[in-house]
Amino acid sequence: MLFNTLALVPLMERFEADHGTLLSAAFFVGRRDDTLFAEQVVDRDSVWVFVLLGHEAIKTWKQNPWFSLSTYRIPTWTTPLLLLIAVTALVPNTSFLGHSCALAVGYAYGLGYLRLLAPPERILRWIEGKLNLLGRLPHYVSVDQKTYGRYGVLPTPNSAPPNVESSPMNFLGSGQRLGP
């Protein structure tokens, strides 16, 4: 349970930064109780970890479709599958079918097939306005802030001001070297 929590927290933080606090709460704060199944407590955090891993893998795949390992090019969306195989082999009494279904749901949500599960932004903005969540919660990510992520719109290397000559890195400054 500790490893599931350690894996879940950064993935949920990334999801919240991309989709907003209200949508994250709607998805992940549902039923949080543990289920007794065959006199054994089943923890659902690992399922959420694989859902979010599938979502992150698709986001990474859209930005960088391959990573190189020696001379092999491996698709980035396959990395959660390797983790699924490792967890199934190393951790006893884990559900391969349950984790693979969770991974499939994460893939489908990342590809946009399950966007209909999210409430419309108009409703989320109305709830934010009525509850004044932006004023009450210190690290709240609004529906409007999630469009550009945590850092807003970052400049690209090719975005030079209109009256400045283009250089390789769009260097502006005095040119004084700092350091040895």
Structural notes for this entry:
With 180 residues, the protein is mainly alpha-helical. The protein has helices spanning 2-19, 21-28, 45-63, 79-90, 96-111, 121-131, 133-136, and strands spanning 35-37, 40-42, 66-69, 72-75. A hairpin with a 2-residue loop joins β1 (35-37) and β2. α3 packs across α5.
Using brief descriptors, characterize the structure shown:
180 residues, mainly alpha, two-stranded antiparallel sheet, globular
Please state the structural category: mainly alpha
Spatial ordering of strands, largest sheet: 1-2
Q: Cα distance, first to last residue?
A: 49 Å
Pick out the low-confidence regions: 38-42
Number of helices: 7
N-to-C SSE string, H for helix and E for strand:
HHEEHEEHHHH
What is the overall silhouette? globular
Hey, roughly how much beta strand do the residues contain? 5-15%
Major sheet attributes: 2 strands, antiparallel
Concise overview:
This protein has seven helices and four strands; from the N terminus they run ααββαββαααα.
